Amino acid sequence: MSNDAAYSYLPPMDPHLGVGHSLAGMKSVRENSGRKGRGGAPRRDEDEPAAKAPAAVPTQPVTSVVPPEPAEEAVASGPPPEGEAAWAYEVAHPDADQDLAPVVGKNLRRLRIQRGLSLERLSKASGVSRAMLGQIELGQSAPTINVLWKIARALDLPFSALISNSGGAGTRLMRAPQAKRLTSHDGRFTSRALFPFDEPRRVEFYELSLKAHSEERADAHPPGTMENLIVTRGTLEMEIGADHHLLTTGDAILFEADKPHVYRNVGAEDITMYLVMSYAEEVG
């Protein structure tokens, strides 16, 4: 008789007894019955199939006792406040380059202050939480591209203005060969911009040159526009409306430029002058 067949004669286990009691009862029945295994030798306890012992234990799927794998959590700077959009708290993967975080932070703080915006106002304009903006400015969070685009659009700036590290935060180096130059149709008047054209501004700075015995006429600028000009070489006549002013080397003039005006070189040499223009409203 096979081992499996031998177990078919054992009495059923009492459900009120534990597993240990049931196994002990099985052992006692077998010892008293005098049944033998193959070869006539008494069966030893260690020959009992191990798989039969836990038969009385209710069967449960293995997976029910294995805890599920915890979901991978997104790296975030802190719990979002109530009502906060989840995307506003996304930050770069911890393995990403964190060197950009302090650069973005310095640029964001500088640009926000330049525009007279509080963190609260920028938060409302961009949809990024005030807490996240504060952490970005402190360099404690490396924001995702999505968040940077939200901030850039709210500031009306190119994306590069937030991540640029050329010359350090708040510094722009403009080499002479790359300067933006404007020339009159006859080539006798030239204007070289000494400021970056790619940022909103209220002040502009120019180097102007005017050939001998030439003039340049300018239309009226928006109300509130001021021009502050200094002559560094030559003799200039400024015609502002019905008024005329003569300036020589070293002379300067400040006037309201919301009326037509004329720069006129009345000398025999070329004029070099520098002009600062300020606007009542932001341009660019």
Summarize this, please?
With 284 residues, this protein is of the alpha+beta class. The chain has helices at residues 3-6, 19-33, 100-114, 119-126, 130-137, 145-155, 160-163; strands spanning 181-183, 189-193, 201-210, 215-218, 226-233, 236-240, 243-247, 252-256, 261-265, 271-283.
What features would you describe in this structure?
23% of the residues lie in helices and 22% in strands. By secondary structure, it is an alpha+beta fold. It folds into three domains: 3-64, no CATH class; 86-163, Orthogonal Bundle (434 Repressor (Amino-terminal Domain)); 176-283, Jelly Rolls (Sandwich).
The geometry reads as elongated
Q: Indicate the proportion of strand residues.
A: 15-25%
Q: Would you identify the regions where 5 or more consecutive residues have pLDDT less than 50?
A: 1-42, 45-49, 61-97
Specify the number of helices.
Answer: 7
N-to-C CA distance: 99 Å
CATH topology of the largest domain: Jelly Rolls
Describe the sheet with the most strands. 6 strands, antiparallel
How many beta-strand segments?
10
